Amino acid sequence: MYSTVRNLLFKLSPETSHDLTLDLIGAGGRLGLNGLFNRQPSFPVTVMGLEFANPVGLAAGLDKNGAAIDGFSQLGFGFVEVGTVTPRPQPGNPRPRLFRIPQAEAIINRMGFNNLGVDHLIQRVRASRYKGILGINIGKNFDTPVERAADDYLLCLDKVYEHASYVTVNVSSPNTPGLRSLQFGDSLKALLEALRLRQEDLAVRYGKRVPIAIKIAPDMTDEETVLVAHAIHQAGMDAIIATNTTLSRDGVENLPYAAEAGGLSGAPVRDKSTHTVRVLASELKGKMPIIAAGGITEGIHAEQKIAAGASLVQIYTGFIYKGPALIRESVDAIASTIKRAP
């Protein structure tokens, strides 16, 4: 049934179909209809001190403003991550800014953190009935200088802390100028230290410690990935999400829209993302959990991420191409792998 719906949606422009899908999933959630067709697969795992109903989550970017939290949760996800959200509302980059490459099960986007602002997101979170694990992904406004990026992250952290199960700090989107520079050197260390100190203050204020995950790019060298992993671990962060979209065009060469600017997601980023997970796992040796995202379009790909060293996985582009069935398929594949392990 989903393939029929997808084919109809794919006749619309990518952003129009994205908005319509959000509306439909949100309406289904409000009416409690989504759960009638998709029972949540149960395979509980504990990561970052949190108990997840299953290890397959919705990646940030699909529901930037928390418009369909209940709807997505009813589709079977073990956790839901919303955002990226910024302190102030911003329109993002000019349209068109979203491009499908169905021949490669891929998408290119240069959305540019388009969102209605952190205060709107909090209203949506408060209005939802979802009681499961909710991640909130935060970023900086496009016009905030990189040197003052920490101000935006801290403002968002202050506002979402009370409402999030965990918070993701997005320093790896390729669509906000200068953002990826925050992944390196003194800029990264300064940001992480500011986040850690604020996390400690907020933990006292609210009487609970909300974990912080850092989302990184797949386009670093192995040496850079190792340095970033050490910095994140030494700063006392709680997890790494690997990875965001890629600037590479490997796997889509000569296909329509391949020359468009933006981050590439879907099947072509799969191997790069899994390699990044493997490098992180080899270096961290279990000291910090890894959440894997990028290129999961079949259950076996989720299984491969776990085998590479991830504790949880997230899907986005694969969900667009395959629908809710991918969630159960991924949970079943992961469960089979774990049960087979000695």
UniProtKB/TrEMBL annotation:
Binding site for FMN: A60, G61, L62, D63, K64, T84, N137, N170, K215, T243, G266, G295, Y316, T317
Note on cofactor: Binds 1 FMN per subunit.
Oligomer status and interactors: Monomer.
Mode of membrane association: Peripheral membrane protein
Location of this chain's protein in the cell: Cell membrane
Enzyme Commission code: 1.3.5.2
Protein name, entry field: Dihydroorotate dehydrogenase (quinone)
One annotated GO biological process: 'de novo' UMP biosynthetic process
Enzyme class, spelled out: oxidoreductase
Gene Ontology MF terms: dihydroorotate dehydrogenase (quinone) activity
Signal peptide (residue range): none
Cellular component GO terms, alphabetical: cytoplasm; plasma membrane
Gene name, Swiss-Prot/TrEMBL: pyrD
Residues at which substrate binds: K64, N109, R110, M111, G112, F113, N170, N175, N244, T245
Pfam families: DHO_dh (PF01180)
Membership in a protein family: Belongs to the dihydroorotate dehydrogenase family. Type 2 subfamily.
PROSITE patterns (alphabetical): DHODEHASE_1
Pathway: Pyrimidine metabolism; UMP biosynthesis via de novo pathway; orotate from (S)-dihydroorotate (quinone route): step 1/1
Residue ranges of every copy of the Dihydroorotate dehydrogenase catalytic domain listed in the record: 45-334
Alphabetic keyword roster: Cell membrane, Flavoprotein, FMN, Membrane, Oxidoreductase, Pyrimidine biosynthesis
Source organism of this protein record: Pseudomonas luteola
